[in-house]
Specification:
With 499 residues, the chain is an alpha+beta fold. It contains 26 helices and 12 strands. α10 packs across α12, α16 packs across α18 and α21 packs across α23. The chain binds adenosine-5'-triphosphate and magnesium ion (MG). Magnesium ion binds next to loops.
């Protein structure tokens, strides 16, 4: 009895109890009472002198959101990656705020706010040009969480207090809470010492946490690449044990993670880590195949180096271009296959074998074995455009040149072509052809006309890049002129439709 009394006295379980019967008067009363009560934290609290965060580095938008919530009687902290990055002296990518206010309550406090997400409901608060993500503290009552047969969390909108929220975060270094007003960092899981030791450690039992959400393994890998940290031994063991679970993750989520690996300025390092820890296959099977060949690995690293350069120069990145590049060597291989060995060869050779074969290769590569399209249509459309521009840029047919220059994806297709030429994939003439396109693109009308004229007068063999492109073996059957033209148009049109 006494034991229970003492336990209750020091327990913070009331703070953590799920907020039930949302909206009822009783619940509201409890909520207000809870907000007024002094909160007993089991956290280690670090003052400014120790955590070293300069409050000036917290943007006005994040401060305003935290302040508005606390003024309304709620708890609110800057949390997650922002605190981690600020303590490491990095500039955070985004600022998240965690609170005990429920999404509907947050919504009422801000003019420009909306609730998003199903799996986890969060509120996006817009302030000037910033977007702050406000999440409600998560509860840890496992009975209220929907999971699939592998233990993966499907839906989870059970709310709790700061302690249960900290427990639900992925790594110790991501579970730090910065109280903007008091300027203290609250640490429930030893994140501060782990930050100091450059250690990535999953909170709780890593195998269970990876089963709940296998993407956490990819997040560990991403932080190895981004922060150059070590992985704690239990976390690493569980990663090796649970890799396979990534096969159940919806491709849209893997796509998001892949973008985070390759578009945040450490793409080359990310590729190293994915390879070193044998995870490429689980993130993107096609990329794994590509990386299995010397030519593929050289190409991918060249692409990623260029991507990192663009990030460091603050230039925009196109996901379509990135994915077109990562998958290209596989497309190229299948393109050659369909031209030379496919059983339909005898049928297709009468038309445009190179373009048809490329179309078949593209279809194959953007789908999984079960026919699922791996990437969203928006991106595959860009990728197909970039890929199908390649044989056209190689051939440089004078009558196609003006149309190609106006193609909405010409610039991306050209950049891709130039990289292929620079990598020596287009034979000796490749760089000349690429440079010609570069000059043509920059030229004015009169210069373009002159360049076209010169191209028309060029001996046929000199006007196209060779080698890299699979050889076209065309054996046309004699047929009437009009018939041949109709058939060719059908193929080109269907190809354009797909691009
Ligand atoms: P960055 O934004 O620099 O990529 P981040 O850690 O801030 O890194 P976010 O995706 O912005 O990553 O997530 C914000 C916080 O949410 C994380 O710091 C972590 O506390 C928590 N979080 C994100 N994803 C998960 C997950 N899969 N499981 C548990 N907690 C997560
Ligand atoms: Mg973040």
């Amino acid at each position: 009895m006494i034991k229970k009394f003492i336990k209750n006295l020091f327990s913070t379980s009331k703070v953590d109890a799920p907020i039930v019967a949302a909206g009822s008067r009783e619940a509201k009363k409890k909520q207000i009472a809870r907000a007024k009560k002094p909160i007993v934290h089991k956290a280690h609290s670090y003052p400014a002198k120790q955590h070293g965060i300069n409050p000036k580095h917290i943007p006005e938008s994040a401060r305003m959101v935290a302040q508005t919530l606390t003024d309304a009687g709620f708890e609110a902290y800057v949390v997650g990656g922002a605190v981690r990055d600020l303590m490491l002296g990095h500039i955070p990518k985004d600022f998240d705020v965690a609170t005990n206010a429920r999404p509907e309550q947050v919504l009422k406090l801000f003019r420009r706010a909306r609730i998003i997400g199903r799996r986890f409901r969060i509120v996006h608060v817009m302030h000037k040009r910033d977007l702050i993500e406000v999440t409600t503290f998560r509860g840890d009552n496992a009975d209220d969480v929907d999971t699939d047969e592998h233990g993966r969390v499907l839906r989870d909108n059970v709310y709790g207090g700061i302690e249960s929220d900290a427990k639900r975060r992925d790594m110790t270094i991501n579970a730090l809470y910065y109280d903007v007003k008091r300027q203290v960092v609250l640490d429930y899981h030893g994140g501060v010492p782990d930050l100091r030791d450059h250690m990535l450690r999953i909170i709780g039992d890593p195998a269970i946490r990876f089963r709940e959400d296998p993407v956490r393994m990819l997040r560990v890998l991403r932080f190895i690449a981004k922060l150059d940290f070590e992985v704690e031994a239990h976390t690493l063991d569980a990663m090796n044990e649970c890799k396979d679970l990534l096969r159940n993750i919806p491709s849209a989520r893997l796509f998001d993670e892949t973008l985070k690996f390759f578009t945040t300025g450490h793409a080359g390092a990310s590729m190293d880590v994915l390879q070193d820890y044998d995870f490429t296959e689980f993130l993107m099977p096609v990329l794994h195949e590509v990386m299995g060949t010397d030519r593929g690995a050289d190409w991918v690293y060249a692409v990623l180096e260029q991507t990192d350069e663009r990030v460091s120069e603050d230039k925009s990145l196109s996901p379509g271009f990135l994915f077109a590049s990562l998958m290209w060597i596989k497309v190229e291989e299948r393109w050659a296959f369909y031209q030379q060995q496919h059983p339909c060869w005898a049928f297709y050779q009468q038309q445009h074998p190179s373009i048809v074969a490329l179309d078949m290769a593209m279809n194959e590569v953007v789908r999984t074995d079960d026919g699922e399209v791996v990437l969203t249509k928006r991106f595959t459309a860009d990728m197909r455009d970039i890929w199908s521009l390649q044989p056209r840029l190689e051939k440089r047919l004078p009558r196609q040149v003006p149309k190609l220059l106006e193609h909405p994806r010409f610039r991306a297709g050209y950049d891709f072509f130039l990289l292929r030429a620079q990598m020596g994939h287009l034979g000796e003439a490749g760089l000349d052809v690429a440079n010609w396109w570069g000059m043509m693109y920059a030229a004015n009308g009169a210069q373009r006309a002159q360049m076209l004229e010169e191209l028309r007068n060029m001996p046929k063999a000199d006007n196209a890049a060779g080698e890299g492109a699979p050889k076209k073996r065309r054996r046309r059957k004699p047929k009437s002129k009009s018939n041949a033209k109709n058939e060719a148009n059908t193929v080109v049109d269907s190809n354009m439709e797909n691009t």
